[in-house]
Specification:
The protein is an alpha/beta fold and about 400 residues long. Helices cover about 50% and strands about 10% of the residues.
Length: about 400
Protein backbone atom coordinates (compact mmCIF):
# COMPACT_ATOMS: atom_id res chain seq x y z
CA UNK A 1 0.00 0.00 0.00
CA UNK A 2 1.32 3.42 -0.90
CA UNK A 3 -0.30 5.57 1.75
CA UNK A 4 -3.49 5.95 3.69
CA UNK A 5 -6.72 7.30 2.27
CA UNK A 6 -6.16 10.93 2.92
CA UNK A 7 -2.93 11.33 0.99
CA UNK A 8 -2.78 12.88 -2.42
CA UNK A 9 -0.65 10.31 -4.19
CA UNK A 10 1.97 11.35 -6.73
CA UNK A 11 1.25 10.09 -10.21
CA UNK A 12 3.25 7.02 -11.17
CA UNK A 13 4.12 6.37 -14.78
CA UNK A 14 4.61 2.62 -14.35
CA UNK A 15 7.38 0.74 -16.10
CA UNK A 16 4.92 -1.73 -17.62
CA UNK A 17 2.34 0.67 -18.99
CA UNK A 18 -1.31 -0.31 -19.28
CA UNK A 19 -3.00 1.35 -22.24
CA UNK A 20 -5.72 2.74 -19.95
CA UNK A 21 -5.07 4.93 -16.91
CA UNK A 22 -5.35 3.07 -13.61
CA UNK A 23 -6.15 4.57 -10.20
CA UNK A 24 -6.74 2.53 -7.05
CA UNK A 25 -5.43 2.69 -3.44
CA UNK A 26 -2.08 1.19 -4.48
CA UNK A 27 -1.53 2.38 -8.06
CA UNK A 28 -1.88 5.60 -9.98
CA UNK A 29 -0.71 5.93 -13.57
CA UNK A 30 -1.90 7.87 -16.58
CA UNK A 31 -3.00 6.29 -19.86
CA UNK A 32 -0.40 5.39 -22.44
CA UNK A 33 0.95 8.54 -24.06
CA UNK A 34 -0.68 10.84 -21.50
CA UNK A 35 1.43 13.11 -19.28
CA UNK A 36 -0.97 13.07 -16.33
CA UNK A 37 -4.14 11.62 -14.86
CA UNK A 38 -7.43 12.57 -16.57
CA UNK A 39 -9.55 13.61 -13.58
CA UNK A 40 -12.73 14.20 -15.61
CA UNK A 41 -12.51 10.60 -16.75
CA UNK A 42 -12.09 9.47 -13.11
CA UNK A 43 -15.24 11.34 -12.10
CA UNK A 44 -17.16 9.51 -14.84
CA UNK A 45 -15.55 6.17 -13.95
CA UNK A 46 -16.16 6.46 -10.19
CA UNK A 47 -19.57 8.11 -10.51
CA UNK A 48 -18.78 11.09 -8.27
CA UNK A 49 -19.69 14.75 -8.88
CA UNK A 50 -17.42 17.64 -9.80
CA UNK A 51 -17.13 20.44 -7.24
CA UNK A 52 -18.62 23.30 -9.26
CA UNK A 53 -19.11 27.01 -8.58
CA UNK A 54 -22.63 26.40 -7.28
CA UNK A 55 -21.33 24.07 -4.56
CA UNK A 56 -18.45 26.42 -3.71
CA UNK A 57 -20.89 29.34 -3.37
CA UNK A 58 -23.04 27.17 -1.11
CA UNK A 59 -20.03 26.28 1.08
CA UNK A 60 -19.16 29.98 1.33
CA UNK A 61 -22.75 30.91 2.25
CA UNK A 62 -23.03 28.19 4.91
CA UNK A 63 -19.59 28.74 6.52
CA UNK A 64 -19.55 32.54 6.03
CA UNK A 65 -15.91 32.15 5.00
CA UNK A 66 -14.28 32.20 1.54
CA UNK A 67 -13.72 28.66 0.20
CA UNK A 68 -10.23 27.28 0.88
CA UNK A 69 -7.79 27.82 -1.99
CA UNK A 70 -7.63 24.01 -2.43
CA UNK A 71 -11.30 24.26 -3.46
CA UNK A 72 -10.89 27.41 -5.55
CA UNK A 73 -8.02 25.81 -7.49
CA UNK A 74 -9.64 22.40 -8.00
CA UNK A 75 -7.09 20.61 -5.82
CA UNK A 76 -10.15 19.17 -4.10
CA UNK A 77 -12.24 18.71 -7.23
CA UNK A 78 -14.82 15.95 -6.73
CA UNK A 79 -17.35 14.95 -4.08
CA UNK A 80 -20.12 12.64 -2.97
CA UNK A 81 -23.15 13.97 -1.06
CA UNK A 82 -21.52 17.16 0.29
CA UNK A 83 -24.87 19.03 -0.14
CA UNK A 84 -26.37 16.56 2.38
CA UNK A 85 -23.70 17.57 4.91
CA UNK A 86 -24.43 21.27 4.30
CA UNK A 87 -28.18 20.67 4.69
CA UNK A 88 -27.59 18.84 7.98
CA UNK A 89 -25.30 21.63 9.21
CA UNK A 90 -27.90 24.29 8.38
CA UNK A 91 -30.53 22.26 10.25
CA UNK A 92 -28.14 22.12 13.23
CA UNK A 93 -27.80 18.35 12.86
CA UNK A 94 -24.37 17.04 13.89
CA UNK A 95 -21.68 15.59 11.63
CA UNK A 96 -18.04 14.67 12.11
CA UNK A 97 -14.86 14.60 10.02
CA UNK A 98 -12.84 11.44 9.44
CA UNK A 99 -9.40 11.21 7.89
CA UNK A 100 -6.20 9.24 8.42
CA UNK A 101 -2.61 8.36 7.76
CA UNK A 102 -0.83 5.15 6.86
CA UNK A 103 2.38 5.42 8.90
CA UNK A 104 4.98 3.86 6.60
CA UNK A 105 7.84 6.32 7.18
CA UNK A 106 9.41 8.22 10.06
CA UNK A 107 9.05 11.55 8.29
CA UNK A 108 6.06 12.84 6.36
CA UNK A 109 6.53 14.89 3.19
CA UNK A 110 4.65 17.88 1.77
CA UNK A 111 2.20 15.65 -0.08
CA UNK A 112 1.14 14.12 3.24
CA UNK A 113 0.55 17.58 4.69
CA UNK A 114 -1.99 18.71 2.06
CA UNK A 115 -5.02 16.76 3.30
CA UNK A 116 -4.39 17.67 6.93
CA UNK A 117 -4.19 21.38 6.05
CA UNK A 118 -7.56 21.01 4.32
CA UNK A 119 -9.08 19.02 7.18
CA UNK A 120 -7.91 21.73 9.60
CA UNK A 121 -9.83 24.28 7.50
CA UNK A 122 -12.96 22.08 7.61
CA UNK A 123 -12.71 21.67 11.39
CA UNK A 124 -12.25 25.42 11.84
CA UNK A 125 -15.14 26.57 9.63
CA UNK A 126 -17.66 23.92 10.76
CA UNK A 127 -16.46 23.59 14.38
CA UNK A 128 -17.02 19.83 14.42
CA UNK A 129 -15.29 16.77 15.92
CA UNK A 130 -12.57 15.02 13.96
CA UNK A 131 -11.30 11.44 14.15
CA UNK A 132 -7.93 10.52 12.62
CA UNK A 133 -7.13 6.86 12.00
CA UNK A 134 -3.48 5.72 12.03
CA UNK A 135 -3.49 2.47 10.03
CA UNK A 136 -0.43 0.85 11.59
CA UNK A 137 -2.16 -2.53 11.07
CA UNK A 138 -2.42 -1.87 7.33
CA UNK A 139 1.27 -1.02 7.06
CA UNK A 140 2.17 -4.23 8.91
CA UNK A 141 0.16 -6.24 6.35
CA UNK A 142 1.41 -4.44 3.23
CA UNK A 143 5.00 -3.52 4.11
CA UNK A 144 8.05 -5.28 5.49
CA UNK A 145 7.45 -3.78 8.93
CA UNK A 146 7.28 -5.40 12.34
CA UNK A 147 4.16 -4.62 14.37
CA UNK A 148 6.14 -2.68 16.99
CA UNK A 149 7.81 -0.55 14.30
CA UNK A 150 4.51 0.18 12.55
CA UNK A 151 3.06 1.30 15.89
CA UNK A 152 6.12 3.48 16.65
CA UNK A 153 5.79 5.19 13.26
CA UNK A 154 2.10 5.86 13.99
CA UNK A 155 3.06 7.75 17.15
CA UNK A 156 5.80 9.70 15.34
CA UNK A 157 3.48 10.64 12.47
CA UNK A 158 0.81 11.69 14.98
CA UNK A 159 3.23 14.39 16.20
CA UNK A 160 3.39 15.89 12.69
CA UNK A 161 -0.41 15.75 12.43
CA UNK A 162 -0.87 17.43 15.81
CA UNK A 163 1.59 20.14 14.67
CA UNK A 164 -0.95 21.13 11.97
CA UNK A 165 -2.87 22.81 14.78
CA UNK A 166 -5.95 20.63 15.35
CA UNK A 167 -8.18 21.46 18.33
CA UNK A 168 -7.31 19.01 21.13
CA UNK A 169 -10.84 19.37 22.54
CA UNK A 170 -12.40 18.27 19.26
CA UNK A 171 -9.87 15.77 17.85
CA UNK A 172 -9.30 12.08 18.55
CA UNK A 173 -6.27 10.40 16.93
CA UNK A 174 -6.12 6.63 17.21
CA UNK A 175 -3.77 3.79 16.31
CA UNK A 176 -5.75 0.80 15.04
CA UNK A 177 -3.45 -1.51 17.01
CA UNK A 178 -4.39 0.26 20.25
CA UNK A 179 -8.01 1.23 19.65
CA UNK A 180 -9.08 -2.22 18.48
CA UNK A 181 -8.18 -3.65 21.87
CA UNK A 182 -9.78 -0.90 23.94
CA UNK A 183 -13.06 -0.36 22.07
CA UNK A 184 -15.38 -3.35 21.51
CA UNK A 185 -17.72 -1.24 19.37
CA UNK A 186 -14.92 -0.64 16.81
CA UNK A 187 -14.38 -4.38 16.31
CA UNK A 188 -18.12 -5.09 16.24
CA UNK A 189 -18.67 -2.56 13.45
CA UNK A 190 -15.75 -4.08 11.53
CA UNK A 191 -17.40 -7.51 11.80
CA UNK A 192 -20.76 -6.13 10.66
CA UNK A 193 -19.11 -4.62 7.58
CA UNK A 194 -17.08 -7.76 6.83
CA UNK A 195 -20.24 -9.88 6.88
CA UNK A 196 -21.81 -7.63 4.21
CA UNK A 197 -18.96 -7.91 1.68
CA UNK A 198 -18.17 -11.13 -0.20
CA UNK A 199 -14.66 -12.21 -1.24
CA UNK A 200 -15.67 -11.78 -4.89
CA UNK A 201 -16.77 -8.19 -4.18
CA UNK A 202 -13.51 -7.44 -2.35
CA UNK A 203 -11.49 -8.84 -5.26
CA UNK A 204 -13.55 -6.83 -7.73
CA UNK A 205 -13.23 -3.56 -5.80
CA UNK A 206 -9.61 -3.81 -4.64
CA UNK A 207 -7.99 -6.27 -7.03
CA UNK A 208 -6.86 -8.69 -4.31
CA UNK A 209 -5.14 -11.84 -5.58
CA UNK A 210 -5.27 -15.39 -4.24
CA UNK A 211 -1.59 -14.98 -3.29
CA UNK A 212 -2.35 -12.03 -0.95
CA UNK A 213 -2.44 -12.73 2.78
CA UNK A 214 -5.97 -13.03 4.19
CA UNK A 215 -5.39 -9.97 6.41
CA UNK A 216 -5.44 -7.71 3.33
CA UNK A 217 -8.89 -8.88 2.29
CA UNK A 218 -10.29 -8.12 5.74
CA UNK A 219 -8.64 -4.71 6.08
CA UNK A 220 -11.06 -2.53 4.03
CA UNK A 221 -13.66 -3.00 6.78
CA UNK A 222 -11.18 -1.52 9.29
CA UNK A 223 -10.86 1.64 7.18
CA UNK A 224 -14.63 1.72 6.65
CA UNK A 225 -15.71 1.40 10.31
CA UNK A 226 -14.74 4.95 11.47
CA UNK A 227 -17.30 6.30 8.95
CA UNK A 228 -19.94 5.11 11.44
CA UNK A 229 -20.48 7.17 14.59
CA UNK A 230 -21.00 4.19 16.94
CA UNK A 231 -17.34 3.25 16.38
CA UNK A 232 -16.65 6.12 18.83
CA UNK A 233 -18.91 5.54 21.87
CA UNK A 234 -16.92 7.99 24.01
CA UNK A 235 -17.78 10.77 21.55
CA UNK A 236 -21.19 9.83 20.11
CA UNK A 237 -22.56 7.14 22.42
CA UNK A 238 -24.81 4.76 20.48
CA UNK A 239 -26.28 7.49 18.23
CA UNK A 240 -26.35 6.24 14.61
CA UNK A 241 -27.93 9.42 13.23
CA UNK A 242 -24.68 11.35 12.77
CA UNK A 243 -23.25 11.99 9.33
CA UNK A 244 -19.58 11.68 8.39
CA UNK A 245 -17.52 13.75 5.93
CA UNK A 246 -14.28 12.23 4.63
CA UNK A 247 -11.65 14.33 2.81
CA UNK A 248 -9.48 11.90 0.82
CA UNK A 249 -7.43 11.49 -2.32
CA UNK A 250 -9.46 10.17 -5.26
CA UNK A 251 -7.52 6.88 -5.28
CA UNK A 252 -9.07 5.97 -1.92
CA UNK A 253 -12.62 6.19 -3.23
CA UNK A 254 -12.96 2.37 -3.64
CA UNK A 255 -12.84 1.96 0.18
CA UNK A 256 -15.73 4.33 0.61
CA UNK A 257 -17.78 3.12 -2.36
CA UNK A 258 -17.78 -0.16 -0.46
CA UNK A 259 -18.66 1.67 2.79
CA UNK A 260 -21.50 3.59 1.13
CA UNK A 261 -22.91 0.36 -0.26
CA UNK A 262 -22.91 -1.26 3.19
CA UNK A 263 -24.06 1.75 5.27
CA UNK A 264 -27.85 1.64 4.63
CA UNK A 265 -27.90 -2.12 5.27
CA UNK A 266 -26.48 -1.44 8.75
CA UNK A 267 -28.72 1.55 9.49
CA UNK A 268 -26.10 4.28 9.00
CA UNK A 269 -25.90 7.35 6.77
CA UNK A 270 -23.64 6.95 3.74
CA UNK A 271 -20.40 8.89 4.40
CA UNK A 272 -19.93 12.00 2.25
CA UNK A 273 -16.59 12.55 0.51
CA UNK A 274 -14.32 15.30 -0.78
CA UNK A 275 -11.71 14.03 -3.29
CA UNK A 276 -8.33 15.60 -3.98
CA UNK A 277 -5.98 15.36 -6.95
CA UNK A 278 -2.49 13.89 -6.59
CA UNK A 279 0.55 15.82 -5.37
CA UNK A 280 3.34 15.94 -7.98
CA UNK A 281 6.82 14.56 -7.36
CA UNK A 282 9.66 17.08 -7.66
CA UNK A 283 10.76 15.51 -10.94
CA UNK A 284 7.27 15.96 -12.44
CA UNK A 285 4.18 13.80 -12.96
CA UNK A 286 6.11 11.29 -15.09
CA UNK A 287 8.19 10.20 -12.10
CA UNK A 288 7.37 8.34 -8.93
CA UNK A 289 7.40 10.04 -5.55
CA UNK A 290 8.98 7.49 -3.27
CA UNK A 291 9.55 7.47 0.47
CA UNK A 292 12.83 5.67 -0.25
CA UNK A 293 14.00 8.41 -2.63
CA UNK A 294 14.65 11.59 -0.61
CA UNK A 295 15.12 13.62 -3.82
CA UNK A 296 11.52 13.03 -4.95
CA UNK A 297 9.91 15.30 -2.37
CA UNK A 298 10.40 17.88 0.36
CA UNK A 299 10.23 16.26 3.80
CA UNK A 300 9.01 17.94 6.95
CA UNK A 301 12.40 17.12 8.52
CA UNK A 302 14.41 18.79 5.73
CA UNK A 303 16.66 21.70 6.73
CA UNK A 304 16.18 25.11 5.10
CA UNK A 305 19.30 24.46 3.03
CA UNK A 306 18.07 21.02 1.91
CA UNK A 307 14.81 22.59 0.73
CA UNK A 308 16.74 25.14 -1.32
CA UNK A 309 19.05 22.50 -2.81
CA UNK A 310 16.21 20.12 -3.72
CA UNK A 311 14.09 22.77 -5.43
CA UNK A 312 17.04 24.19 -7.36
CA UNK A 313 18.43 20.79 -8.37
CA UNK A 314 15.41 18.51 -8.80
CA UNK A 315 12.21 20.54 -9.36
CA UNK A 316 11.20 19.90 -12.97
CA UNK A 317 11.18 23.12 -14.96
CA UNK A 318 8.73 24.28 -17.60
CA UNK A 319 11.23 26.92 -18.70
CA UNK A 320 13.09 27.05 -22.00
CA UNK A 321 16.64 25.82 -22.62
CA UNK A 322 18.16 29.31 -22.84
CA UNK A 323 17.34 32.67 -21.29
CA UNK A 324 16.75 34.14 -24.76
CA UNK A 325 14.29 31.40 -25.72
CA UNK A 326 12.50 31.69 -22.38
CA UNK A 327 12.05 35.44 -22.73
CA UNK A 328 10.81 34.96 -26.31
CA UNK A 329 8.44 31.99 -25.86
CA UNK A 330 7.74 31.94 -22.11
CA UNK A 331 7.54 29.04 -19.67
CA UNK A 332 4.98 26.23 -19.39
CA UNK A 333 3.17 26.35 -16.03
CA UNK A 334 1.29 23.13 -16.87
CA UNK A 335 4.43 21.04 -16.36
CA UNK A 336 6.56 23.33 -14.16
CA UNK A 337 6.70 21.70 -10.71
CA UNK A 338 7.70 24.91 -8.88
CA UNK A 339 4.58 26.62 -10.23
CA UNK A 340 2.43 23.57 -9.44
CA UNK A 341 3.72 23.62 -5.84
CA UNK A 342 2.82 27.32 -5.60
CA UNK A 343 -0.80 26.44 -6.45
CA UNK A 344 -0.78 24.35 -3.26
CA UNK A 345 1.13 26.68 -0.94
CA UNK A 346 0.70 30.29 -2.15
CA UNK A 347 -2.70 31.36 -0.83
CA UNK A 348 -2.84 34.78 -2.52
CA UNK A 349 -4.82 34.32 -5.79
CA UNK A 350 -3.73 37.66 -7.25
CA UNK A 351 -0.03 36.95 -6.59
CA UNK A 352 -0.33 33.47 -8.13
CA UNK A 353 -2.06 34.89 -11.23
CA UNK A 354 0.69 37.49 -11.58
CA UNK A 355 3.41 34.82 -11.35
CA UNK A 356 1.60 32.68 -13.94
CA UNK A 357 1.27 35.60 -16.37
CA UNK A 358 4.89 36.71 -15.95
CA UNK A 359 6.29 33.17 -16.29
CA UNK A 360 4.23 32.32 -19.35
CA UNK A 361 5.15 35.64 -21.01
CA UNK A 362 8.87 35.02 -20.38
CA UNK A 363 9.21 37.99 -18.05
CA UNK A 364 9.86 35.74 -15.00
CA UNK A 365 12.78 33.28 -15.24
CA UNK A 366 12.80 29.77 -13.76
CA UNK A 367 15.41 30.77 -11.17
CA UNK A 368 13.20 33.58 -9.88
CA UNK A 369 10.15 31.31 -9.78
CA UNK A 370 12.12 28.74 -7.77
CA UNK A 371 13.36 31.48 -5.43
CA UNK A 372 9.75 32.43 -4.61
CA UNK A 373 8.82 28.79 -3.93
CA UNK A 374 11.92 28.23 -1.76
CA UNK A 375 10.98 31.25 0.40
CA UNK A 376 7.42 29.99 0.91
CA UNK A 377 8.44 26.38 1.64
CA UNK A 378 11.23 27.39 4.03
CA UNK A 379 8.69 29.40 6.03
CA UNK A 380 6.08 26.63 5.93
CA UNK A 381 8.43 23.80 6.94
CA UNK A 382 10.34 25.95 9.46
CA UNK A 383 7.12 26.93 11.25
CA UNK A 384 5.90 23.32 11.17
CA UNK A 385 9.16 22.10 12.74
CA UNK A 386 8.86 24.71 15.50
CA UNK A 387 5.30 23.57 16.32
CA UNK A 388 6.27 19.90 16.20
CA UNK A 389 9.12 20.47 18.65
CA UNK A 390 6.50 21.53 21.20
CA UNK A 391 4.48 18.30 20.81
CA UNK A 392 5.46 16.28 23.87
CA UNK A 393 4.68 12.62 24.59
CA UNK A 394 2.05 13.87 27.02
CA UNK A 395 0.33 15.93 24.30
CA UNK A 396 0.31 12.88 22.00
CA UNK A 397 -1.23 10.81 24.80
CA UNK A 398 -3.98 13.41 25.32
CA UNK A 399 -4.92 13.39 21.63
CA UNK A 400 -4.83 9.56 21.48
CA UNK A 401 -6.81 8.80 24.66
CA UNK A 402 -10.43 7.70 23.96
CA UNK A 403 -12.57 10.36 25.61
CA UNK A 404 -15.59 12.62 25.25
CA UNK A 405 -14.92 15.56 22.94
CA UNK A 406 -16.23 19.11 23.29
CA UNK A 407 -19.29 18.37 21.23
CA UNK A 408 -23.00 18.46 21.95
CA UNK A 409 -25.50 16.21 20.19
Amino acid sequence: SRGHFIHPKPVVMSEVKDKEQKVDPWTAHAAEGAAKIDYDKLIDQFGSQRIDKTLMDRIEAVTKRPPHHFLRRNIFFSHRDVPDILNAYEQKKPFFLYTGRGPSSQSMHLGHLIPFLFTKYLQDVFDVPLVIQMTDDEKFLWRELELEEAHRLAIENAKDIIACGFDINKTFIFSNLDYMSSCPQFYRNILRIQKCVTCNQAKGIFGFQDSDCIGKMGFPAVQAAPSFSTTFPDIFGDNKDIRCLIPCAIDQDPYFRMTRDVAPRLGFHKPALLHSTFFPALQGPQSKMSASDPTSSIYLTDTLDQIKQKINKYAFSGGRDTKEEHQKYGGNTEVDVSYQYLTFFLEDDAKLAEIKQRYESGDLLTGDLKKELIRILQNLVGEHQARRAKVTEDVVKQFMTPRALNFKL
